[in-house]
UniProtKB/TrEMBL annotation:
GO terms for molecular function: homoisocitrate dehydrogenase activity; isocitrate dehydrogenase (NAD+) activity; magnesium ion binding; NAD binding. Keywords: Amino-acid biosynthesis, Lysine biosynthesis, Magnesium, Metal-binding, NAD, Oxidoreductase, Phosphoprotein. Pathway: Amino-acid biosynthesis; L-lysine biosynthesis via AAA pathway; L-alpha-aminoadipate from 2-oxoglutarate: step 4/5. The lineage of its organism: Eukaryota, Fungi, Dikarya, Ascomycota, Saccharomycotina. It holds the Pfam family Iso_dh. This is homoisocitrate dehydrogenase. It comes from the Eukaryota. It comes from Lachancea fermentati. Its EC number is 1.1.1.87. It is an enzyme of class 1 (oxidoreductase).
Amino acid sequence: MLRTSFTQLARRAYASSAKPLTIGLIPGDGIGKEVIPAGKLVLENLSSKHGLNFNFIDLEAGWKTFQDTGKALPDETIDILKSECQGALFGAVQSPTTKVEGYSSPIVALRKKLGLYANVRPVKSVEGTKDRKVDMVIVRENTEDLYIKTEKTYIDEKTGTRVAEAIKRISEVATRNIATIALDIALQRLKTNGQATLTVTHKSNVLSQSDGLFREVCRQVYDSNKAKYGAVGYNEQIVDSMVYRMFREPECFDVIVAPNLYGDILSDGAAALVGSLGVVPSANVGFDFVVGEPCHGSAPDIAGKGISNPIATIRSTALMLEFMGHVDAAQDIHKAVDANLREDKIKTPDLGGKSTTQQVVDDILSKM
C-alpha cells in the first residue's frame, strides 16, 4: 500500500507536535470553496487525538482572483506559502476555454514556483464496495511537457491560413526526479505488498526525441540503481494501449509514471474505475513542500448547491499529512473515508446518493 510509505519519502519531517503546523488554504473557484473547508475541519478534528496543532492562512488564487486583481496567482500567495507554511490545500480553478490576455493557470504556476515536481495520484477501490478491484498509483511529472505553455500562432505563407504550435519539453533532470520518486513509491509498496511493478508510459514510437528521452532516462534510473530497485518489476507501455489496458485490466497496474499530459489524462480516466473524480486525491510533491489537491475541477454546474463530494479533498489532506511525516493521523482519515464508502449510505449525487457535502463531512468526522 502507498498510504504507509510516505514517511520514508518525506523530504522534511514535521513529526513533532510541539510546533504548530501552518497550512495554506487556497479554495480557488467553484466547488473548491466548498470542499477546502472540509479539509480544514478534518485537520482540526485531528488535534485532540494526535496532539497536532494547526494554524491556517486563507490565500487567494483562481479565475475570480484574476478578475478582481488582474493576477490569477498573486505574489503574496507564493510569498506566504514559502515563508510561513509547511503545506497547503488547493481546491480547484475555473479557467476560460479561450485565450484571455494575461491569464494563466494558477495551479500550473504554483507547481513551478514551489518546485512541486511530482503529482502523486493513488487510485484505489475500497474493499466491500461495488467498485472493481483497483490499487494503482499514477505518478505524473508536474513541471514540463506541453504544460510549459509555450505556444504561438502564425500565418502559413503557402496557404495564408493560421497555424498554432506548442512546444513539448522533456528534460533529463525532471525525468530523473520523477522516475526516482516513482521507483521509491514502488519500493515501499513492494515492502508492504510483497511485489511491485513500475510501468513507464510514453509515445516514443512517434515522439522519438521527447518521449524517447523520457523512456531512456527512466530506464537509466532503474538500471543504475539495481541494488536498490532490482526487486521492483519494470515495464513500458505506449500511452494509447495504456489507456485501453487500464480500463480492461486495471488489476495489472501498480505504479505508473508518465509525462505531464499523459499523467493528467490517465489519472482523470482512472477515476472512472472507482466511481467518481470526487473521490480521487493527489499530492503535489516537491523536495521541501507538499500541496494536497483533489483531482476534480471547479464543477461550475453544481457550485453553490452544497452537493459537491468532499472525499477527494479529505483524502488529499491525508496525503499531505503523510508526506509531512504524520502517517498515523493520515491513516485515521483514510479509515474513516473507507468506512463511509463501505456503508454506502451517506453519499453525494456523483456517487448515486442524495446527501449534501456537509452530511458526508459529518459522517466521516464521526468515524474518525
